[in-house]
Amino acid sequence: MTPRVVFPNKILPYLLVAPQLAITLVFFYWPAGQALYQSMLREDPFGLKSRFIWFDNFRRVLADPAYLNSIKVTVIFSIATAVVAMGVALLLAVMAEKVIRGKGFYRTLMIWPYAVAPAIAGMLFLFMFNPSIGTLAVLLRKAGVHWDPLLNGTHAMILLVIAAAWKQISYNFLFFVAGLQAIPKTLIEAAAIDGAGETKRFWTIVFPLLAPTTFFLLVINTVYALFDTFGIVHAVTGGGPGKATETLVYKVYNDGFVNLMLGVSAAESVILMAIVIALTAVQFRYIERKVHYG
């Protein structure tokens, strides 16, 4: 029987945990509670008068065609960003592992873009793909593609996905490299001896063993696409053209800080929080079942 371990000081453990609890309460639970309370109020733009209206703001939001459109935009944007960011990062990680000389140098170059601020990353791609002066836009025009993200909603969404995915590729690359290094080389060598080709070795050995890393990055990239891309959306498209790129988080900003509909904006933020919690729960409940932790 294992002897019971008793901490000698009864107060010190609570003191050590207190800072983290205080930060969680002040910066998470308190704002969340305030948002939930404000979502049931009807306020004037200056916040001088308010009236408790229960769930009228939620009914108004869910009946708004513009909000339903932002849900569709967010779904498309989130899936596309996660797929592109994770797919390209995995490809680069696999290719970087094949480099014999200067492997550390290449890895360092791949990680650098993560240090770029979202707004700066957005402006970078906005200039490169600007239909008038953008270098890449000029190349597309010479190739016969009439590129105009300022007026074409599909082009604007493509530009937004490229910018958001580029910003996240470095983060995914770092974890995929770590996952690849954790795979025993003996398994790959044994498969090669048995005659398995490089592609077959990847899909039957390497990729299944990367399942824990892939699942972790799937959760992280989902949250990133829903929340952390606000700066990119604001810098690149501003939700346009014609609300073609207005994601849920950007609509919260538009309704709350631009249109000054404080109660409606709070209701939208509560719904967004509920969506993220539900998505995370579904991912852990169903997708994690297929993850093998070797």
TrEMBL record:
This is sn-glycerol-3-phosphate transport system permease protein UgpA. It comes from the Bacteria. The keyword Lipid metabolism does not apply. The complex is composed of two ATP-binding proteins (UgpC), two transmembrane proteins (UgpA and UgpE) and a solute-binding protein (UgpB). Its main location: membrane. Residues 71-283 form the ABC transmembrane type-1 domain. It is a multi-pass membrane protein. InterPro entries: MetI-like, MetI-like_sf, UgpAE/MalFG_permease. The chain crosses the membrane at residues 12-32, 75-96, 108-129, 202-227, 257-282. GO terms for biological process: transmembrane transport. Belongs to the binding-protein-dependent transport system permease family. The keyword rRNA processing does not apply. One of its GO terms (cellular component) is plasma membrane. It is found in: Cell inner membrane; Cell membrane. Part of the ABC transporter complex UgpBAEC involved in sn-glycerol-3-phosphate (G3P) import. Probably responsible for the translocation of the substrate across the membrane. Gene3D superfamilies: MetI-like (1.10.3720.10). Keywords: Cell inner membrane, Cell membrane, Membrane, Transmembrane, Transmembrane helix, Transport. CDD domains: TM_PBP2 (cd06261).
